[in-house]
Each structure stands twice: as C-alpha cells, then as structure tokens.
User: Fold this.
Amino acid sequence: MQSSQPTPHDKMMFQLNLRQRGISDQAVLKAMGDVPRELFVTSLDRGYAYRDTPLGIACGQTISQPFVVAYMTEQLDLEPGHRVLEIGTGSGYQAAILSKLSREVVTLERFRTLADRARLVLKELQCTNVDVILGDGFDLPETLGTFDRIMVTAAMEEIPEALLGRLEPNGILIAPVGPMNDRQFLIRVIRTADGFERQELVAVRFVPALQGIAREL
Ligand code: SAH
Assistant:
C-alpha cells in the first residue's frame, strides 16, 4: 500500500525534528539520516517509521523513539576507532546507528527471535562491523573483553558493577536507570583515573532489563 511507505517529506521532517530538539552532532545526524528505520519496524508500522515515537516490535519489546536514539548516541561521544557494547539489541536500529560511528559494535539480546531478525537486517544493510549475540547483559561472557563505550537500552534498577568493570579508562557508559515500568533517568558514567563520575541526564521510559536468556515458545 502506497500510504504505508515513508515519503521523502517524512524523512526531511525527521531530520528537522532532531535538529529542533537539539541534536547538533553532524555525524550523529548523518547516521540518523542514512539508516532506514522502516526496515527495523513491523510491516504494519512502515508508514510511521519516521515519526518521533517508539514502536512495538516482536516479543513485546519496543524500538526506541528516534530522538532518544540520537540523544543517547550523541551523549556517548563516539570516535571512529571505538569498540562499543550495546545491551538490548531489540530491532537492531540503535546498533546500526552505532555501527556508522565506531569501529566495532557488539550487541546483546536476550530474545533469540529479536537477535536473529536484527542480524538479518544488519546484514542486509551491510553493517559488517556489528556482532549480534544472544546473551544476557547481566552476565556478560568473559571473552567479550572491554569497551570504549557502553550503551544500555533497557531500564536497569542500578548499573551493575560488572558492567562498569568492562569500561576502558576514559570510557563512557549510558543507561536508563530507575524502577521497572516507571520513569527512569538516563545516567552517564565516565571512567576516570580516580573511579567513576556519574551524571544524571533526562527522564526517559524504557522496557525493563531482565535477567537470563528469554524462554520463547
Ligand atoms: N535498542 C533497541 C531497543 C531496545 S528495547 C532498538 O534499537 O530497537 C530493549 C531490549 O533489551 C529488548 O529487546 C529486550 O529484550 C532487551 N533486553 C532486556 N534485558 C536484557 C538483558 N539482560 N540482556 C540483553 N538484552 C536485554
């Protein structure tokens, strides 16, 4: 159906809205313009792909609101040489954005269905520097090593020490922190020579981070 496809006008308004809401990093804006969000939403939602709203995906999860994706990415202060960890692959959209701005992205998802789908879309888009792993962000495999940047895209009641331990010196982690199914705050943590510096950003609402690999039918 014609009306279910995003139009060039939709894409132009999408970029404009991100700028108006204060996203100013040109590389982030370019990545947001380059990644086709319509490929990461369900076919019924294609026509809404460029609205600034979260949308439902499989397994009862959500693809985040574009402004939040851009904002979190901007706050991560990425450099092209960075190795990045994402917890909560979901649709794979945020991972695709990160892949344009860094050397390597490792993204973990606890639902096999979502991990498999995201892997396919990312392959189709030739995001060859992304590794989608079925796994639990609360129990990271030792072999994954450490990261320059970490982004958590599911709400945690607190940031696990083990996750902070995966940050390289001067590394930055960003995560929504707060009670499940309520409002959370985006927290930005910088690993300094003396420890960890913590900063509260804006209020957000994310689906909860849950322990373990999901059991699916
Ligand atoms: N970044 C995603 C949206 C994230 S929604 C996107 O761009 O589409 C949050 C995702 O985190 C969900 O898919 C959920 O299944 C996943 N998740 C929740 N807890 C997790 C955990 N402990 N480990 C890995 N993934 C988790």
Notes: The pocket of S-adenosyl-L-homocysteine is lined by residues 61-64, 87-88, 90-91, 93-94, 108-111, 114, 136-138, 153-154, 207, 209-210 (CB under 6 Å). The radius of gyration is 16 Å. The longest strand covers residues 167-177. The first helix runs from residue 8 to 20.
